[in-house]
Amino acid sequence: MALRDYLVGEVAEDFVDGLLTRREALRRLGLLGLGASSAGLLLAACAGTAPSGTAPSAAPPTPNAAAPSAALPGGEPPGRGPGVSRGSEIRFAGPAGELRGAWAAPAAGQAKGALLVVHENRGLTAHFYDLVGRFAGAGYGALCVDLLSAQGGTAALTDPAQVPTALANAPATDLLADLRAGMDELGKRVPGTKLGGVGFCFGGGMIWQLLNAGDTRLAAAVPFYGPAPENPNFTRAKAAVLAVYGALDARVDATIPRAEAALRAAGLPYQVRVFDGADHAFFNDTGQRYQPDAARTAWSETLDWFGKYLAAG
Fold first, then answer.
1. Among 143, 159, 31, 28, residue whose Cα is nearest residue 94
2. Helix 162-169 / helix 3-16 crossing angle, nearest 10 deg
3. What is the Cα–Cα distance from 153 to 170, expressed in whole angstroms?
4. Percent helix, strand, coil in the chain (nearest 5)?
5. Of 120, 110, 113, 115, which is closest to residue 132 (Cα–Cα)?
6. Residue 224 has what pLDDT?
7. What is the structure's pLDDT at 200?
8. Where are the alpha helices (DSSP H) in the chain?
9. Strands 88-94 and 113-118: what pairing?
């Protein structure tokens, strides 16, 4: 699935689920390069596939990003608790200039491994500062590279619709180069440990792209509901892969067969995990599709995976 096509599909899906008004969806599709006629036809076709009773709402619901965790369904998100701190911003050298990122270090002398965390198509949001801290609390040095560093960082783009557009306009080779620079930085900050990668939505797709590019430094990878590339070839990769999906995420789930076939052909250790009743982005506790039970189980299984392939041996 081409990156721009995936991001276009994200807008259409958010419209169908009532997270965007028609006007806002049309605006975002225009920023992604669709003409007014094509965008209108796409939304009409997608709205026609919505199940009865799930027609797009007149206005997007209020996000729960600012809500206290106690107000979230299921209480605290997995991995958050006493003594777990958010990540902090760091800056480091990249292939074409300075890169920004959210970094969190494990307790001194307790590093189980290093983790490259790849953000969603909304960029390096507060959720990912929180998430690297949660991984650090579990014993991993974690870094989430801001893939919008060339634009001054995610926070510099005041219009949220600009973020996926900027990502779509960036050559995939540039995005991969920035992620590799993040891996270099992790090697300096958590030396002598194995390296893993975990990504979400767009970031899950970038994890697949790293495997497709044959980066052998990844010993373990966990792409969450990330679209697999067209005709993937993972034969140069060395990672053990846990691929996580939501059963309601039909658009991304359609890429499972080709991802699994490529993993099998490459002879990599892998597991495909599909969570019943969970949709795209079910792990993000700041989003409308958050599913706490699935998120809690996915967190536990992700740590078990990294414990087996990063921390052990």
1. 143
2. 160
3. 14
4. 40, 15, 40
5. 115
6. 98
7. 98
8. 3-16, 22-31, 36-48, 126-137, 162-169, 172-189, 202-212, 250-253, 256-266, 292-306
9. unpaired
Instruction: Name 23's Cβ contacts closer than 8 Å, sequence gap at least 6.
Output: none
Domain with CATH 3.40.50.1820 in the chain: 86-311
**Based on C-alpha coordinates, what's the Rg of the chain?**
19
pLDDT per residue, tens digit, the chain (313 aa), is 577 788 888 888 888 888 889 888 888 888 878 888 786 777 787 765 544 334 444 333 333 333 334 456 667 899 998 889 999 999 999 999 999 999 999 988 889 999 999 999 999 999 999 999 999 999 999 999 999 999 999 999 999 899 999 999 999 999 999 999 999 999 999 999 999 999 999 999 999 999 999 999 999 999 999 999 999 999 999 999 999 999 999 999 999 999 999 999 999 999 999 999 999 999 999 999 999 999 999 999 999 999 999 987 6
What CA–CA distance (Å, rounded) separates 176 from 250?
Answer: 26
Tokens read off for 84: 């777990």
Pull the structure tokens for residue 256.
């499972």
| Contact by Cβ (8 Å): 195, 183 | yes
User: CA 306, CA 283: separation in Å to the nearest integer?
Assistant: 17
Terminal alpha carbon distance of the chain: 36
At 288, list the tokens.
Answer: 């409308």
Cα three-residue angle 104-301-148, rounded to 5 degrees: 40
Strand order in the sheet with 195-200: 88-94, 97-104, 140-145, 113-118, 195-200, 218-224, 240-246, 270-275
Length of the chain: 313
Fold of domain 86-311: Rossmann fold (3.40.50)
Q: Report the C-alpha gap between 160 and 28 in whole angstroms.
A: 9
